[in-house]
């Protein structure tokens, strides 16, 4: 024998079944605060991730640029001495410049970079830093890359001033 729930009147069902299936009165909104707290927690965690990891990204961008600038300066200070004495023109010794910039980056503990000569009087360095995330890893973003590029030129003589 099959009994359909729709054919049974409400007064026939036990009181515990009526309350669990058909909430009415002050218990009708029970659990709504728990759902709101979960939603707010997710929003606050996302905001914290943007603030903390966004600040770390800006800091990593500055560090990558500073590291590229310092490595480029280290390379651009290598003058081709034989050319300077022979003709009086100052140019970058490209082989020594590239080696000096690479040595600076290796000494600083970085391995993701490229160093190239940019003409006879300059050197260009590109550095990429990979930083792990703290909060955004919860949504699958494990790390981010920051790249800094700098060019240092060899300048001779006194410039500027009055």
List the SSEs and their pairings.
Layout (H helix, E strand, L loop, with lengths): L14 H7 L10 H45 L4 H7 L6 H14 L5 E5 L4 E11 L10 E11 L9
Antiparallel strand pairs: 1-2, 2-3
Helix pairs in contact: 2-4
Fraction in helix: 40-55%
Would you report the number of β strands?
A: 3
Tally of discrete structural domains: 1
* Count of helical stretches: 4
Radius of gyration: 33 Å
Contiguous runs where pLDDT drops below 50 for at least 5 residues: none
Strand content: 15-25%
Largest sheet: 3 strands, antiparallel
Question: What series of H and E elements makes up the topology?
Answer: HHHHEEE
Distance between termini? 108 Å
Structural class: alpha+beta
Give the spatial strand order of the biggest sheet. Answer: 1-2-3
**Mean of all residue-level pLDDT scores:** 79
Principal-axes shape call? rod-shaped
Task: Characterise this structure.
With 162 residues, the chain is an alpha+beta fold. It has four helices and three strands; from the N terminus they run ααααβββ. The chain has helices at residues 15-21, 32-76, 81-87, 94-107; strands at 113-117, 122-132, 143-153. The chain has a three-stranded antiparallel β-sheet with strand order 1-2-3. 18% of the residues are buried.
Pick out its properties.
162 residues, alpha+beta, 3-stranded antiparallel beta sheet, 4 helices, 3 strands, rod-shaped
